Amino acid sequence: MEGNNRTLFLAVILVVLLKQTKALVEEVKETVGIEVEMQDLKFKYSNRGNKESEFLINITDVNFADELRKIWNYEVDLKIITHGWISSDASLAVANIKNAYLSKTDFNVITLDWSYTASTKNYPVPAVMTHQVGKLAAEMVNKLVELNFTQYDRIHMIGHSLGAHVSGATGTYCKEKMARITGLDPAGPGFMVLMGNDMRLDMSDAQFVDVIHTAAGVAGYYGVLGHADFYPNSGKPPQPGCVELSLNVYKVVSSGFGCSHMRSYELYTESIVNPKAFKSIKCDSWYDYESKTYCNESDIQYMGDPVQPT
Ligand SMILES: *[C@@H]1O[C@H](CO)[C@@H](O)[C@H](O)[C@H]1NC(C)=O
Ligand SMILES: *[C@@H]1O[C@H](CO)[C@@H](O)[C@H](O)[C@H]1NC(C)=O
Ligand SMILES: *[C@@H]1O[C@H](CO)[C@@H](O)[C@H](O)[C@H]1NC(C)=O
């Protein structure tokens, strides 16, 4: 009896959610005509010697390369870091990772701020726009490679939430595959059913794609997206220490609400400082892990920054 009630209850929720989604999709269709333009994005360059100056890379300015050449470090690799919904390059998801890298050693770091689009409260709009944002970001990357600042196999892009899909789209439009993309709890809503492979981060977007899931099935994408997908503490919310205020998917994606969703970049930041913090073993499922029989205990990776392409 109780079981039946529960099923009914779930069915009602599902119908409500589907109705909500349909209305949202209609709204997106109306707004999707809006183009994202290069001026809406901010690419800020920094390295160890220029941590604070944050040189603005404007590829439409003919003089940008001359200026950038004066400060670029040709010896080191490039990290590109971006944020999610209702967020910006000032968010901890971007700042903490950047600061952790530059505290450890030198890198060329470019933060991508797409808050002009990401700040749209109606989630499906920025979700759909991630594709165009990534396409423009790829123009910037292609330009840097063309001008010999770096090569594709020296580029690693890291994105949180919707930023993971921005990174995927960037990879799609790069002239060659970049070395690595890391998706930090890639946004789930919309990307599971409404948008296909070409819209979401997937393993074809870079030579190596690794993913950390921390709010899978709610704010985050549940399924496997990369070459190596990590599911700390089952990958689902609530993560230890988190009390989720709401299970409304749209609320949880927004940075103010998703403690588990934010945990992905906190773990990643820690893995830069402390590379052996998150020992992981290869399993086909969480069930296999819990049953402690089917996983390969000698197939070990350290989650986060130190992951080795397999
Ligand atoms: C980038 O450069 C172009 C061409 O000089 C200029 O029109 C535009 O305002 C610049 N954008 C920013 C954000 O400074
Ligand atoms: C970049 O390097 C290649 C190969 O060394 C060279 O042919 C090309 O002229 C360089 N391009 C620029 C813009 O310096
Ligand atoms: C377990 O992993 C190790 C290390 O990657 C590998 O050499 C071995 O073949 C794997 N064993 C099985 C049964 O897959």
TrEMBL record:
Signal sequence coordinates: 1-23
CDD domains registered for this protein in UniProt: Pancreat_lipase_like
Entry-linked InterPro entries: AB_hydrolase_fold, Lipase, Lipase_N, TAG_lipase
Keyword tags: Secreted, Signal
Compartments (UniProt record): Secreted
GO cellular component, one term: extracellular space
Molecular function as annotated in GO: lipase activity
Domain Lipase, first and last residues per copy: 73-304
One BP term from GO: lipid catabolic process
Keyword Signal: yes
Taxonomy, superkingdom: Eukaryota
Family the entry assigns: Belongs to the AB hydrolase superfamily. Lipase family.
Protein name in the entry: Lipase member H-B-like
Organism: Diaphorina citri (Asian citrus psyllid)
Gene: LOC103519846
